[in-house]
Amino acid sequence: MSFPEPHIHDATTAHAYTIILLHGRGSNGPEFAKEFFEARTSSGLNLAEHFPSWRWVFPSAKARLSTIFGEKMTEWFDTYSLSDINAESHLQVEGLGEAVRFILDLIEEEAKCVGAAEKVVLGGVSQGEATALQAFLCGQRRLGAFVGASGWFPFAGQVEAILRESEGSEKQVAAFLRNNLGLGDWIATSSAGLGLVLETPVFLGHGADDVWVDLKLGKQARDILKSMGIDVTWRKYIGAEEDGHWLKETEEFDDIVKFLKEKVICI
Fold this sequence. Notes:
Family: Belongs to the AB hydrolase superfamily. AB hydrolase 2 family.
Pfam family, one: Abhydrolase_2
Strand order of the largest sheet: 1-3-2-6-7-8-9
Radius of gyration: 17 Å
Largest sheet: 7 strands, mixed
Mean pLDDT: 90
Shape: globular
Helix content: 25-40%
Domain Phospholipase/carboxylesterase/thioesterase: 7-160
Oligomer: single chain
Protein name: Phospholipase/carboxylesterase/thioesterase domain-containing protein
Order of helices and strands: EEHHEEEHEHEHHHEHEH
């Protein structure tokens, strides 16, 4: 079964940039877009209004059987546990492999539309961030930026072990992720391509009181990316929502606007 068509919010002026944002488990592209654009910055605008020349792409995951919930739901991959993200990690492989291929194809399409991968931003919320991080590190492109919120890093234990082993292990991490997801023959690891990936600036935000994805998982993702030599902007938020599992309005949206204007529009 193929992925549903992405939900598109087109630029209201000449299309100059594209941002691809992945929803969390149990949601979909249109629902995520609606919730995302309902939020406002301190200026009273939503993010699309801050960036009128941007095309916003909200892909939707497939419906697949969730092991932990025992029913079908929209999710990018099967997540067994968020208290121990290394438990039963093999369950993640099939979904992540499919999702990464899909997202990398979307990036390629949007890069052709705007003329360069450096004008494409990738990101996501919760499981969407986790999925987007895999696509980001498996790709061979320097993107405009990466923006994640309330997420984690799949296969973190194995990746941390690789990074502890020796200097220059960033290439081994990229090779491990590709091979682990069955992408080894589909896209090869190259030093030049990885170097471009590592030049991509990253923003990660996380609620201190998130009861679904613990703050320590967000910090772990941050530390892995920093260990790979990536420029990471990290923000912790108090009282993002009742359960902390969403972006904090207006503070986090303000921070994302500032980050994108400094890191992307200046390219």
